[in-house]
Amino acid sequence: MSEQRAGDQGKAGERGADDRKDENEQEKVPIRELLIAAAFELFAERGYDGTTIDDIVRRAGVGRRSFFRYFPAKEEVVFPDHERALADMVAYLDEGDRDPDPVGRACGAARLVMRMYAENADFSVKRYALTRKVPALKAYEISVVWRYERALTAYLQRRFANLPDGGARAYTIAASVVAAHNYGLRAWLRSGARGDAAASVDPALDLAHRTWSDTGETVVLVARRNTPMWQVVQRLEEEWRDEGRV
User: Residue 192: left if φ>0, alpha if ψ -120 to 50, beta else—which one?
Assistant: First the structure.
């Protein structure tokens, strides 16, 4: 009996430890969000440079160690989701090594970042306004964007490795995709996040896709063997004009 009671107590202790672990895990999300909210309240009141980490933890009602458990530095609290977005992008690209349309895949990866901004539009607008005012945050944002571009470049380098201009093509397309994404995203943020973010970003990404993709439509024109080339070109132009392409 004593051995059974000891076993039961041991199991109860294990359950208690597991319960405490689950509680601690559940607490992590609220504390993280609490720190972000406190930080942005203080940035609005005192400015970014006028706010210290001690101010943030005091406003959030947590210890200083709690801050560094989630954010290595003060600027990290302004960009809390970029590490997750970058990891999602890399995983998405890694799954597309056999995608017949690598440029389309790169554009799809950029849309993952756009969705991260759209998930919390109000926060994204506040962050955009803050980064326009604080040079240090603007510099940090540039470094974040560069990491996205580097991930796209690495993927495209793999896909174009067998082409003589593969390296130049990868760098150029990655930069174009990032520029197109940023153009559409910033237009949406400047509007105060009115409407759908995708409606602003997609046209720019579609332009980059059309510009750089080799997966265009194949056109077949039947002509007699002795048809002059100028007539062939004229026929093509007429067909495209009817379809609104030219």
Answer: left
